[in-house]
Design brief:
The complex is a heterodimer of chains A (about 325) and B (about 525). Chain A has about 325 residues and is an alpha/beta fold. Chain A has two domains: about 30-125 and about 255-325, D-Maltodextrin-Binding Protein, domain 2 (3-Layer(aba) Sandwich); about 125-255, Periplasmic binding protein-like II (D-Maltodextrin-Binding Protein, domain 2), CATH 3.40.190.10. Chain A is about 40% helix and about 20% strand. Chain A is built from eleven helices and nine strands. Chain A has helices at about 1-15, 45-55, 75-85, 100-105, 140-150, 165-180, 195-205, 215-220, 270-285, 285-295, 305-325; strands at about 35, 65-70, 90-95, 115-135, 155-160, 185-190, 210, 225-230, 255-265. The longest helix of chain A is centred in the C-terminal third of the chain and has 21 residues, at about 305-325. Chain A is globular. With about 525 residues, chain B is an all-alpha fold. Chain B has one domain (about 1-505). A two-stranded antiparallel sheet of chain B has the order 1-2. In chain B, β1 (about 185) and β2 (about 195) form a beta hairpin. The longest helix of chain B has about 50 residues, at about 95-145. Chain B is globular. Chain B starts with a helix and ends in an 8-residue tail after the last helix. Classes of the chains: A alpha/beta (about 325), B mainly alpha (about 525). Chains A and B meet through α1, α2, β2, α3 and β6 of A and α2, α3, α5, α13 and α18 of B. Chain B: Keywords: Membrane, Transmembrane, Transmembrane helix. Chain B: Pfam families: TctA. Chain B: This is Putative tricarboxylic transport membrane protein.
C-alpha cells in the first residue's frame, strides 16, 4: 500500500507539473481537444495522438492534447456532433483525411456538407500504391491492368476500405486512366483495414493490393510484396525512390490520402488562426519531418484558406469519379 | 539458444525499478478496468495512452505499462462474471456460465482463485508460444483465406447448441437474433446502409459492449426490480464465500482442461480477427463436448467450466500478439490499439520487427512474464477483498451496477444514443430471461456475424460466384467436418439422455438461474 501511495503521488506530481507554463500566442487554448472520429488504433486516432504528442514535445501546447474517440458512421457521428452541438468550441479540432472527403462527396454524412466546418491544415499525405506478392508473375502496372481489361474476373484486388471508399477509387482511377471500358467490372474485395488486405495478398487469396504506402511499408522492407506503382506525380524521396510511378508507366493516375484537421464552423478567427499557426509550426519542425519519413508520409504543406480550397477540389473530384462509376447518381 | 539469450537481454531491459513499478501500476489498473462492466482491455489501454505520453516514457516502458493493463484486464474480467453474473468484458462472457453457479453454491472464493490460476496458466504458456512459435504461427495465419475463416466461424456457431442452454432450439433462436442484430449498419462490401433508418449513429452497427452491458447488467437490475416487492435481501440471495483456495483435487481435475484450453485459445488468438472471445468460447464448447457430453455438470458450477474459458481467453490474449508483432495485423481490438501505440512511437511492426527492434520485442516479452506473475501474486490475496462484493445487499449493489453501466458506456462512446440502445438491450434481456432464452449466443452472433458474412462474400466474389470455393482446401474441409460432427453428435447423445435428465433440467435454461 505504501508503494502504491507513493506511486500515485509521483504520478500526480508529474501530471501537475505539465499544467504550468506560459502561452506564446495571443489566443489561449484552455483545454485543447482532438476528436478522432474512429475507435483507437486507426489512422485518425494516430493523427490526433501523434500530433498531440509532437506539439507537446515541441512546446507548442502547454497542456496535453486530449484525444477523444468518437466513432460512428465512418466519421459521420463526429461530424454531426461538431456541427450540431459544438459549433462554437474554440478548443476543438477533429482529425480528417481523404476518407472524410470521400464520404462528404458521396453524401454519406446525411445532411452534412464540407462548408459547415472550417478546414485548418494538412499534416502530410499518404500516396496510394498498387502492389503484388513478391513472387507474382505480374511484372508491372500495365500488365496488371491489361489482365483486368481482357478478363476482369481473373484478377481480385484487395483493399482496406469499403466498396466506393478511397482504396477502391484509387484502383478505379488507374483502370480508367489505362482505358478499361467499364471500370465497374473491376473485382474489388473489401477487407477491414489495409493490414488484413496485405495478409490476404501474402496468403494468395487475391492477386493485387491497393492501399496506402504506410500500410505496405513493413512488407516491402521484408521483401514479401512488390510495389508495381505509386500513384504520385513524381518519384518519392529517400528509400521510396525505387518505386515506379504510374505516370512513368503510361498510366496517368494520381491518388493521395491526405491527413489533416477541421474545426467547428463558428470557431472564432483568433482561435482558428492560432490553431493554423500551431499546426503550421509543427509541420515545419524537424521532428515532424522525421515522423513523416518513418511513416511513409509524403509532403503536403497546406494551411488555412489554401487547405480549404484543396479539400473543396478533392470533394469535387471524388464526386465526379463516383458519378462515373455509378456509386453516386 | 539464441532465443533464450535474447530473452535474458529482454529481462535485463525490463527489470528496472521504473519498469517494475509501471508493470505493477498497469496490472492493478487493468484488473480494475477488466472487472468493471463496460470497460474492457481495449478501452483500458486506450485510456492509459495519454498517461504514457505525458510521463514521457520511452518505447519499452510504455509497452510494459500498456501490456500490463492488457493482461490485467483479461484477468479482471472474470471477477464480475463470477460474483455478479455480469461479464466484465466480452471474453469473460463464458466464465459466467459455470463461474456464477459456483459462487451460488458457496464456492465463490474457489472459483475466483481457480480462474486466477487458469488465467495464469493460459497466459504463461501463450507467452512461451509467442517466443518459440511466432514465425511458424504466422504461416498458419496465412493458410486462412476468406473461405477458411467462414468455415471457422460456421464451426463456432454449429457447436453452439447446448453450450449455454439445454434447449438447442432456443440457442439457435438466440444466435439468429444476434446475427440479425449484426446486420445493422453500413455494409462494408457495398457501402450500403442496412436497417439504419437514416440514423447516423447506427451506421457503424451496434457496439457489442453496449449490447453486453445492456443484456447482462441492466437486465439483472430489471430482474431485481421485478422481485423487489418480495424480500429483496432475502436469504435466497445470500451467497456464502466459502474457502478461498481450491483443494488440490480440484486443481488436479482441471489441469488437463487448462492445457487443452491453452492450446486452443492460443491458436484462436493467432488468427487475425478471431480474438480472445472466440478463444474462450471454443475452449468452453470443446471442453464441454469432451468431458461432459451428456450435459450433466457444465452450466451448474463445474470447475472445469471455469478453468476452460479463462485459460482459453488469456492464452488467446498472448496469441493475438503474434500477428500484431510479426505481421502488423492486429488479432483483436486491444492489439489494434497497441499497434497504434507502436506506430506513434516510430516502431513499425511487421516481418522485420524482430531484427530491427529486438530490444523492444524482447523487453515486451519479458514484461509479459513479469506482469503475469505479478497478476497471480496480486489476485490470489485480493480474492478475500473481491468476494466482499457478495456481502453487499442487492438493494445497494443494483443501483451501483446501473450507475456503473451508464457511466461506463457514456464514458466510452460519449453518446446518449448508445445509452438508449443499452436500455433497449436491457429490456430485451429481461424478456429473454423470462423466456429462458440464453443470452450468450446473441452476443456471439453480434460479435462474429459481420466477420462471418464478410468472409463468405469475399470468398464467393473472389471465385466469381462459385460456391464450391468454400470446400476446396483441405483446411476448410477439415473445419467443416468438425463443425458437422459438433452439430450432429449432441443431437444423438442428447436424445439418448433426454428422458433420463428430463425432470432435473426443467428449471435450467437461461444463464440467469
Amino acid at each position: 500500500m505504501i508503494i502504491k501511495a507513493t506511486r500515485l503521488t509521483l504520478a500526480a506530481a508529474l501530471l501537475g507539473a505539465s499544467t504550468f507554463g506560459a502561452f506564446a500566442d495571443g489566443f489561449t487554448l484552455e483545454n485543447p481537444e482532438c476528436i478522432a472520429p474512429a475507435n483507437p488504433g486507426g489512422g485518425w486516432d494516430f493523427t490526433c495522438r501523434q500530433v498531440g504528442k509532437s506539439m507537446q514535445d515541441l512546446g507548442l501546447l502547454d497542456k496535453t492534447l486530449q484525444v477523444v474517440n468518437l466513432a460512428g458512421g465512418g466519421g459521420g457521428v463526429a461530424f454531426a456532433e461538431v456541427v450540431n452541438k459544438r459549433s462554437d468550441d474554440d478548443n476543438l479540432i477533429v482529425a480528417a483525411s481523404s476518407a472524410t472527403a470521400t464520404r462528404l462527396a458521396q453524401g454519406a454524412f446525411p445532411g452534412n456538407t464540407m462548408d459547415q466546418v472550417r478546414w485548418l491544415a494538412s499534416v502530410g499525405a499518404d500516396y496510394g500504391v498498387i502492389a503484388v506478392a513478391a513472387d507474382s508473375d505480374i511484372a508491372d502496372l500495365p500488365a496488371l491492368l491489361e489482365m483486368i481489361k481482357t478478363d476482369s474476373t481473373s484478377v481480385s484486388v484487395a483493399g482496406g476500405s469499403a466498396v466506393g471508399g478511397w482504396d477502391h477509387l484509387k484502383v478505379l482511377i488507374a483502370a480508367d486512366a489505362y482505358g478499361v471500358e467499364d471500370v465497374r467490372t473491376v473485382k474489388y474485395i473489401a477487407f477491414d483495414g489495409g493490414g488484413e488486405a496485405v495478409t490476404q495478398l501474402l496468403a494468395g487469396s487475391v492477386q493485387a493490393f491497393t492501399g496506402d504506402l504506410s500500410e505496405a511499408k513493413g512488407f516491402v522492407d521484408s521483401g514479401d510484396i512488390r510495389v508495381i506503382a505509386v500513384l504520385a506525380p513524381e518519384r518519392l524521396a529517400g528509400e521510396f525512390a525505387d518505386f515506379p510511378t504510374a505516370r512513368e508507366q503510361g498510366v496517368d493516375a494520381i491518388g493521395a490520402n491526405w491527413r489533416g484537421f477541421y474545426a467547428p464552423g463558428d470557431m472564432s478567427d483568433e482561435a482558428y488562426d492560432t490553431w493554423v499557426s500551431k499546426i503550421g509550426a509543427l509541420y515545419a519542425s524537424d521532428e515532424w519531418k522525421n515522423i513523416m519519413t518513418n511513416n511513409g508520409l509524403a509532403p503536403l504543406d497546406l494551411q488555412g484558406p489554401e487547405f480549404e480550397a484543396f479539400v473543396a477540389d478533392n470533394v469535387a473530384q471524388i464526386q465526379k469519379i463516383s458519378k462515373e462509376i455509378g456509386i453516386l447518381r | 539458444m539464441d532465443t533464450l539469450i535474447s530473452l535474458a537481454d529482454g529481462f535485463a531491459i525490463a527489470l528496472t525499478w521504473q519498469n517494475l513499478l509501471l508493470a505493477l501500476l498497469g496490472c492493478f489498473l487493468g484488473t480494475i478496468m477488466g472487472a468493471l462492466p463496460g470497460l474492457g482491455p481495449s478501452n483500458g489501454v486506450a485510456i492509459l495512452i495519454p498517461l504514457a505520453f505525458t510521463l514521457g516514457l520511452g518505447a519499452t516502458p510504455s509497452l510494459i505499462l500498456l501490456t500490463s493493463v492488457y493482461y490485467g484486464a483479461m484477468y479482471g474480467g472474470r471477477i464480475s462474471s463470477i460474483l455478479l453474473n455480469i461479464p466484465g468484458d466480452e471474453p469473460a462472457m463464458m466464465t459466467c456460465l459455470d463461474g456464477h453457479p459456483m459462487a451460488k453454491n458457496g464456492m465463490a472464493g474457489q472459483a475466483l482463485s481457480l480462474s486466477g490460476i487458469a488465467s495464469f496458466v493460459g497466459a504463461f504458456f501463450a507467452t512461451w508460444g509467442l517466443i518459440f512459435l511466432a514465425p511458424q504461427l504466422v504461416k498458419i495465419a496465412l493458410l486462412f483465406g476468406p473461405a477458411e475463416y467462414f468455415a471457422l466461424f460456421a464451426l463456432a456457431f454449429m457447436t453452439l447448441g447446448g453450450v449455454s442452454s439445454t434447449n438447442q432450439a432456443k440457442s439457435a433462436f438466440a444466435a439468429a437474433l444476434g446475427l440479425g442484430l449484426a446486420m445493422i449498419g453500413v455494409d462494408t462490401q457495398t457501402g450500403v446502409p442496412r436497417f439504419t433508418f437514416g440514423e447516423v449513429h447506427l451506421y457503424d452497427g451496434l457496439d457489442f459492449l453496449v449490447a453486453i452491458v445492456g443484456l447482462f447488467a441492466l437486465s439483472e437490475v430489471f430482474i431485481f426490480l421485478e422481485h423487489r416487492h418480495g424480500d429483496a435481501n432475502g436469504s435466497a440471495d445470500k451467497i456464502q464465500v466459502g474457502r478461498l483456495t481450491p483443494p488440490l483435487s480440484m486443481l488436479k481435475q482441471t489441469t488437463p482442461t487448462m492445457i487443452r484450453s491453452t492450446a486452443l485459445g492460443f491458436v484462436a488468438g493467432v488468427l487475425p480477427g478471431a480474438g480472445a472471445s472466440l478463444g474462450s468460447f471454443i475452449s468452453y464448447a470443446f471442453e464441454k463436448r469432451l468431458v461432459d457430453s451428456e450435459g450433466k455438470t457444465f452450466g451448474k458450477g463445474d470447475p472445469r467450466g471455469v478453468a476452460a474459458p479463462e485459460a482459453g481467453n488469456n492464452a488467446a490474449a498472448g496469441g493475438a500478439l503474434v500477428p500484431m508483432l510479426a505481421l502488423g495485423v492486429p488479432g483483436s481490438g486491444t492489439t489494434a490499439v497497441l499497434l497504434a501505440v507502436l506506430l506513434s512511437l516510430n516502431i513499425t511492426p511487421g516481418p522485420l520487427l524482430f531484427s530491427q527492434n529486438p530490444d523492444v520485442v524482447w523487453g515486451l516479452i519479458a514484461a509479459l512474464f513479469i506482469a503475469n506473475i505479478m497478476l497471480l501474486a496480486m489476485n490470489i490475496p485480493m480474492i478475500g477483498l473481491f468476494t466482499r462484493v457478495l456481502m453487499v445487499p442487492p438493494r445497494i449493489l443494483m443501483p451501483i451496477v446501473a450507475m456503473v453501466s451508464f457511466v461506463g458506456i457514456y464514458g466510452i462512446s460519449g453518446s446518449s444514443f448508445d445509452l438508449l440502445v443499452m436500455i433497449g438491450f436491457g429490456v430485451m434481456g429481461w424478456v429473454l430471461r423470462k423466456l429462458d432464452v440464453p443470452l450468450v449466443p446473441i452476443i456471439l452472433g453480434t460479435l462474429l456475424g459481420n466477420s462471418m458474412e464478410n468472409n463468405l462474400r469475399r470468398a464467393i466474389s473472389i471465385d466469381n460466384g462459385d460456391w464450391m470455393t468454400l470446400i476446396d482446401s483441405p483446411l476448410s474441409i477439415t473445419l467443416w467436418l468438425i463443425a458437422i460432427i459438433g452439430f450432429i453428435l449432441p443431437l444423438i447423445i442428447g436424445r439418448k439422455v433426454k428422458t433420463k435428465m428430463h425432470s432435473s433440467r426443467d428449471e435450467e435454461g437461461a444463464i440467469s438461474d
